[in-house]
Amino acid sequence: MYIAYASSSCGRSTIGQEEIHCVQVHDVKEAVLELVANHSIACFAPQGTGVKIYNWSGVPKHINFNKTVKCLAMMGDKLYCGCTAFSIQCITVNNDFIFTATRFGTIEAWLKERVTRVASIKMGSGGNAKITCLTSDKDGQMLFAASSDGKIQVKF
């Protein structure tokens, strides 16, 4: 696993190759299929079931809940996992909501505090396009969904 940082000086919006530097390498001794991290921990999905929590030193702790993790999101000290048994393909979290995309082309919105589903949005890209990525602004005003047909949809 490589941890890198990027710096942009003078308000530039592009980052040149010379500005990206590898500062640490952590060998977790297995394939990392999904990764979320912050300054104190890295959480990753290995091959097989469960998730591993790594505190940047020592051995990763395996948390096994007998599900294969498809996607991860982290906000604060909470880790959110989308598992294949629940057909969740991708996940994103903002201040108020958790958004999950299913393999059936539906985005579900959940209240973060109670983990209660409050809405379902059927994405209208037509055909058999699958939602491949989700992201949201931190205030929850906009949701972006990318699909396998090359489209990025913006929801307000």
What does this protein structure show overall?
- This protein is mainly beta and 156 residues long.
- Helix content is 0%, strand content 51%.
- The protein has no helices and 15 strands.
- The strands form five sheets. The chain has a four-stranded antiparallel sheet with strand order 3-4-5-6, with no helix packed on it. It has a four-stranded antiparallel sheet with strand order 9-10-11-12, with no helix packed on it.
- β3 and β4 form a beta hairpin.
- It is globular, with a radius of gyration of 17 Å.
Which terms summarize this structure?
single chain; 156 residues; mainly beta; four-stranded antiparallel sheet; 0% helix
Topology:
Elements: E1 2-6, E2 20-25, E3 34-37, E4 42-45, E5 51-54, E6 61-63, E7 69-75, E8 78-83, E9 88-93, E10 97-102, E11 106-111, E12 116-122, E13 131-136, E14 143-147, E15 152-155
Antiparallel strand pairs: 1-2, 3-4, 4-5, 5-6, 7-8, 9-10, 10-11, 11-12, 13-14, 14-15
